[in-house]
Amino acid sequence: MAHVDPSVVLLSPLPEHYPLELLYTLWLQSRTETPVVPVEDIQLALAHDMYYEDTPELFIDPQPGISFRAYYNSQIDLILSIDIPLLESLVFVFVVEGMTISMREQLVRHREGSYWLQSGRIRDQRTFASRGAYRTPQGIRGNQELEGMWVRSMTTVQKMFNALLNYGMTIEEARDILPAAQTHRGSVTMNYRALKKMIGRRTSFIAQSTNWHPLLFGLADAVNALDPRLISHLFEPPEIHNGTYIGQTNELENRRRLAGDDPLPPCPIFMKYEVSQYWDFKHDPYIFMKEHRGDVENPFLEYIEYAAQYVKLWGEQTFLDHCWYGELIVKHAQGRVT
C-alpha cells in the first residue's frame, strides 16, 4: 500500500549561517545609534559568555552585570513573538518530497511564498501506480476493503493514461485523468513572517489541518533542527497568542459541530472558553456530548480521539491550559488512555 506522506528537507538557512544572530543584528541597528555590529561579533559574544561590561555595544540599553547570552535570548524571544517586517529577513528554502497534487494546490494558495515544482514531464507518470507514487488517505489506512479499492483505482487510472497516450493523445490532454493523490516534489521559499502566517491559518481545528499535519510536522522538525526557538511561536492555534486566549476565529462552524450539523467534533479551545462557562458541566461529559451530538455512538470519545491528533501540532501545554478536558486529550495522544 502507498502510505506516502510528505517529507521536508531544509536547504537554507543552515546553523552556520547564524540566522538568529542575523535577526538580532538587524534589531540592534534599528534600536541604537552605535555602528552596525557584524553577525560574527554576536556569535563570538555568545560563544565566550560575555557580559555587558565586556561588550556594551551589543546591548540596546545599559544592563550592568547581565550576561549577553541572557539578554540576547530575551530579545530573540521578543522578536519572534511579534509580527514585524524584521521577520521577513529570515528566509527559508525547503524541498518537499512526496507532495500530492491536492496538497500542492492548497500550498500555492499562500501567495506569500514562491514555489518551484517538479514538472510532470520529468516525473514518469506512465508508471506512477506501479511505483506507488501516490498517497493513500489517512482515514482509510487499515481498512483492507477501501485500501484495496484505492489501489485498484490508481492502477486503472494508470492503464487509462497509457491507453490515451498510445492512442495518440498529447500528454497535456491525457494527464487530466491523473489523480490528485499522485505525488511529486517541489521547493518552497518563504520568509519567517509569511511562514508564521501560513502555519497560523492551517493549525486551526477547522481549516483542513489534519490534511496538512504531515507537511506541518515535517516543517516543524526541519525548523526545530535549526533552532528550537524558531518553532516556539509558529504552531500556536489562531485562538491563542503568546499563551493567551484572544477569541474564536470559527465560532459559527464550531457551533454547527456541537449541534451535530457537521460530522466532525468541535474545537477543544471553543469548548473551554465559549461553551463550558455557559453550561452546567457537573454532569458526565459523555451525557453532555450525547445530548448535543446524539447521532454519534460515543461523541465524547470521538472528541478526545480527534483532538489528540493536534497535541503534537499545538504542544501539550496548550491543551493543558486552553482545552476542555485537555489533560485527558494529552494522555490519549501519549497512548496512556485506551
Describe the structure.
The protein has 15 helices and 6 strands. It has 338 residues and is of the alpha+beta class. It has 2 domains: 1-235, Gyrase A, domain 2 (2-Layer Sandwich), CATH 3.30.1360.170; 241-333, no CATH class. The chain has a 4-stranded antiparallel sheet with strand order 1-2-4-3. A hairpin with a 2-residue loop joins strand 5 (240-241) and strand 6. Helix 1 crosses helix 2 (39-47), helix 1 (19-31) crosses helix 3 (68-81) and helix 12 crosses helix 15. The longest helix has 24 residues, at 144-167. The model has no long low-confidence stretch (mean pLDDT 87).
> For the largest beta sheet, what order do the strands appear in spatially?
1-2-4-3
CATH architecture tag of the largest domain: 2-Layer Sandwich
Report the mean per-residue pLDDT as an integer: 87
From the spread of the alpha carbons, the general shape counts as flat
Helix content: 40-55%
Question: Uncertain regions: pLDDT < 50 for 5+ in a row?
Answer: none
Name the structural class.
Answer: alpha+beta
* Number of continuous helical runs: 15
- Determine and state the CATH class of the largest domain: Alpha Beta
Radius of gyration: 24 Å
Q: Order of helices and strands, N to C? A: EHHHEHEHHEHHEEHHHHHHH
What's the total number of strands? 6
Give the domain tally. 2
The proportion of residues in beta strands is: 5-15%
For the terminal residues, how far apart are their CA atoms? 27 Å
Q: Biggest β-sheet: count, sense, barrel?
A: 4 strands, antiparallel
CATH domain fold name of the largest domain: Gyrase A, domain 2
